[in-house]
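Lecture 7 notes: from sequence to structure.

We start with a single chain of 308 residues. Read the sequence below before looking at the structure.
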Amino acid sequence: MLDGIEVRLGIDYLENKEELDKLAEKVVYTGAIDAYFDYKLGNLEYRSVRFENEVLDIPNYQGNAAVNYTDSETPYTRIIEHKWFEFGKDDDGNDIEKTVISKEYSSEWKPGDEPYYPVNDEKNGALYEKYRALADKEEQVLFGGRLGEYRYYDMDAVIARALARAEETGSPAVALQLMNGEIVTGKTSELLGASSAALLNALKYLARIPDKIDLISPEVIAPIQHLKVEHLGSKNPRMHTDELLIALSICAVTDEYAAMAVEELNNLRGSEIHSTVILAHADDKQFGKLGTYVTCEPVFEDKKLFHG
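Now the structure, written as tokens:
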């Protein structure tokens, strides 16, 4: 995978930032965001991990690369048996006489320790938002990962909600988990695709707009659908997310609630989204522009050979 790509080991990016930044138009930074800014706003807090490594005189300790331990009696949280990540046996298929394992222990973090996981509480969340405002001004650098975006990635809840909503309605569904952990859903209807419905519901939640309020009236949606089907040759009259946001922006000129919803768009950044079908290209692209993280089931919404 790295064939033809220069790889430098033992290099501290922050110590060599000026030199390294000249090598590319864009830099993807996955280190700690507070370290990037030299802790100028204060230290974020993290959880750390301690490893104990052992070389055992047996060919096989657990038969898997990783085994997790969730009970309260076991002092470590995971055992890694490294040989099973790639080979497990020698080139002739025989057992290797020794094996190396690493026991992983959770540990308190203090400045100078290796950070592994963010602490998602109100105090650290508020400090991260200040760092994120600084990061947004870094045009060359993209901040990503647990440390760069100061968040723990855990998609199981939003995936479960999307699947449950699809089963409940019998049609494609989308679930969107906001940064505060709240999950909103959207289902396919005659007017909106599931992605658009979830996006609209998320903006309503963030702006504290009652569910009964129509942010975009059917009278606005109807001519857009007519244009798509009768003049642009689309077979799908439902509004995609890009079309939804244009309509919402138009309504915001005269409607107070729509204007409130538009103001919340930046607060979608970092949200996690799961769709029960493969997203249309327009929706996938729009969610990316909003700074969200999208996953989907490997299922097409229809039987078309090409999906757009």
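The chain has three domains: 14-43+122-148, 46-108, 156-296. Keep this in mind for problem set 3.
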